[in-house]
């Protein structure tokens, strides 16, 4: 069976000078040490140590071969979104990042599928960037789960999601810039607590605002990290919808009736949690996601799926690759523009 990982990240070897496209301080950029290691930089500040799989296609492909992964969807690191920048500047930055991601994926175009980023702070510019990315060969778009205090149910972001549905571009939504940092000090609590909460907030915001009633059903939308807390707390949300008119004011159906409108990845790291996720979402709505190459990712890709009780061979094949193949399938009407070789 084909193994496809929908949730992996890249940080191209951007120089400090290239970082100034986005910010005068020259951020973000990548300091490469020449020994297979590097440092993600935010201006002068060191952000996170990394290894070559994050920016080097050969190292990435070697890791994939060793792990038994056939295909990766490759998306930028959330530090690179640039949502705080002036919109026109962010649009130029996204075009630069998207070109570099295409360059990396050109090393193995059948195995490395590029996802674009867009200046989500401006709906018109984001839609135009998505159009350019689609025509250039990107297989989807990668967005953060909010832009400042605007959640995914914001009218401008809903309009962008509707546009992606109309042009046949799948969307991968990733939590970032987590809430309440002043209360999540140390022990990676923003990643352990903030990320699941951010993702649940995004999903419930779309459901309870009625946004899915305004977005074409053709939208292919996937939330990372197993949808965060959503599956475990869905019963609470349904109970609230049935009992309180404040909860159901804008949503004609309870939250559990919208699980056919989006997908989630499998990055929950426990076969028991994955079993619940499959029960809630259905076996057709869960896809392998590892968060490669970051240290909190799944070290043995697909091991949680393979250990999940109650999945038959067809179900495991769907989660390991079949669902992702359908999710990432290009629009058959798409004519990808020829790109000049950079090699």
Automatic annotation (TrEMBL):
A Pfam entry, by short name: Amidohydro_2
Broad EC category: lyase
UniProt-listed Enzyme Commission number(s): 4.1.1.45
Keywords of the record: Decarboxylase, Lyase, Metal-binding, Zinc
Pathway note: Secondary metabolite metabolism; quinolate metabolism
InterPro entries, alphabetized: ACMSD, Amidohydro-rel, Metal_Hydrolase
Domain Amidohydrolase-related stretches: 4-328
Summary of subunit composition and partner proteins: Monomer.
Family (UniProt): Belongs to the metallo-dependent hydrolases superfamily. ACMSD family.
Annotated protein name in UniProt: 2-amino-3-carboxymuconate-6-semialdehyde decarboxylase
